């Protein structure tokens, strides 16, 4: 068994869940997270589908920290970009397909497309039934 953790853009979550459902991998946990990568959170602008419509009538955009700092005479602040973290446990033979599906849906070629981590899971136990191993995962 492997644990797959994918950190993806918020607006790609629905398509990611849909692609995984089509593969028969519907068991997952999803969290709202914030973080930063190599660019240290310094992004030019990121489209933000969760921004209220009243914020900007033209395009829903999140200002960069450097723009904020310049407008408010502050030093550049660290920005943590909002993302979604999808975590799932899958049998070893499904790992490659799941990773490919996540990459296919989320790859745009731009910074911030996300990261995928694959880790070994030593044991799994379903609390309700007492099942263990692969039987507890599916």
In short:
The chain is of the alpha+beta class and 138 residues long. The chain has helices spanning 13-22, 65-72, 95-106, 134-137; strands at 2-8, 29-35, 46-47, 61-62, 81-90, 114-120.
Question: What are the defining features of this structure?
Answer:
138 residues, alpha+beta, Alpha-Beta Plaits, 2 domains, two-stranded antiparallel sheet, 25% helix
Topology:
Layout: E1 2-8, H1 13-22, E2 29-35, E3 46-47, E4 61-62, H2 65-72, E5 81-90, H3 95-106, E6 114-120, H4 134-137
Antiparallel strand pairs: 1-5, 1-6, 2-5, 3-4
Q: Quick one: CATH class of the largest domain?
A: Alpha Beta
Structural Rg = 18 Å
Low-pLDDT parts are 44-48, 51-61
CA(first)-CA(last) distance: 11 Å
| Annotation field: number of helices | 4
> How does CATH name the architecture of the largest domain?
2-Layer Sandwich
In helices, the fraction of residues equals 10-25%
Shape: elongated
Could you characterize the architecture of this molecule?
- By secondary structure, the protein is α+β, with helices and mostly antiparallel strands.
- The protein folds into 2 domains: 2-39 and 80-137, Alpha-Beta Plaits; 42-79, no CATH class.
- The protein has helices spanning 13-22, 65-72, 95-106, 134-137, and strands at residues 2-8, 29-35, 46-47, 61-62, 81-90, 114-120.
- Helix 1 (13-22) packs antiparallel against helix 3 (95-106).
């Amino acid at each position: 068994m492997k644990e797959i953790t994918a950190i993806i853009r918020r607006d790609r979550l629905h398509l990611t869940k849909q692609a995984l459902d089509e593969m028969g991998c519907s068991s997952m946990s999803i969290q709202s997270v914030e973080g930063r990568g190599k660019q240290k959170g310094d992004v030019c602008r990121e489209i933000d589908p969760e921004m209220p419509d009243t914020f900007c009538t033209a395009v829903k955009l999140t200002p960069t920290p450097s723009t904020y700092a310049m407008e408010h005479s502050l030093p550049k602040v660290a920005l943590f970009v909002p993302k979604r973290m999808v975590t799932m446990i899958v049998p070893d033979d499904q790992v490659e397909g799941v990773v490919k599906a996540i990459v296919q849906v989320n790859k745009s070629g731009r910074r911030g497309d996300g990261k995928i981590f694959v880790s070994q899971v030593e044991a799994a136990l379903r609390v309700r039934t007492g099942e263990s191993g692969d039987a507890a995962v599916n």
